Amino acid sequence: GQNIDQPTEMTATEGAIVQINCTYQTSGFNGLFWYQQHAGEAPTFLSYNVLDGLEEKGRFSSFLSRSKGYSYLLLKELQMKDSASYLCAVRALSSGGSYIPTFGRGTSLIVHP
Amino acid sequence: GAVVSQHPSWVICKSGTSVKIECRSLDFQATTMFWYRQFPKQSLMLMATSNEGSKATYEQGVEKDKFLINHASLTLSTLTVTSAHPEDSSFYICSAKNVRGRYEQYFGPGTRLTVT
Asked: Which residues of B fall within a CB distance of 8 Å from A91?
């Protein structure tokens, strides 16, 4: 099975930078996703890392270290609309032979003025 | 591009009845669709993987006779919750993988099911 761990909740100030960590244990690793989910809505894709290193996309960056089973999502210049749940999902080879993403519990980020 | 729709967006039904939820990929073909369930303040739990033209693969602990999945075409998958009970009340979300895509899944807006 897979074990994905991320903090339950974080708070930050508008305009600041916040880093959301995700650690995982899995076999057959084939990539890690970050999704943003606002309350009552479906997740929206933020990033995908399959190789080690940092991927930057505007205000959001995602980092992966496969040897450490570790990833983080970095959000810069925080805005109030960034208040949401951030889901870490690990893509791995299932027993059925297909690649299935498994989601962590999500980190609820609260941005305050 | 890459839009996935779900219908209905919310439904209230009585205990013992069945409810069908549709998931459609509107502008791409999806050989694989995933069905998730999400309880309040919890993460998405994968229920089953649906492949066009074949039987769905259910995750451990998910009753395939209760949650019927049909993936009849490259743009449509349906989830039927049979003999629904209050504990089935949840947010059901589908996602679709583009047949031409490498890894990315596109999520539908979700269906809020309430069983009374």
From this structure: 103
Residue A100 is nearest to which of B49, B110, B112, comparing CB atoms?
B49
Between the alpha carbon of residue B7 and those of residues A28, A43, B45, B86, B93, the distances in Å are 34, 17, 20, 20, 11
**Single-letter code of the amino acid located at A47:** S
Residues 4-23 of B with CB under 8 A from A: none
**B50 C-beta neighbours (distance < 10 Å), count:** 26
- Rg value, chain B, Cα: 13
User: Is residue A45 exposed (0-12), middle (13-18) or buried (19+ Cβ within 10 Å)?
Assistant: middle
For A60-108, write each residue's pLDDT tens digit. Answer: 999 999 999 999 999 999 999 999 999 999 988 877 677 778 899 999 9
- Of A79, A42, A41, A43, give the one whose Cα is nearest residue A60: A79
B66 shares contact with chain A (CB less than 8 Å): no
Which residues in chain B touch residue A96, judged by CB atoms under 8 angstroms apart?
Answer: 49, 57
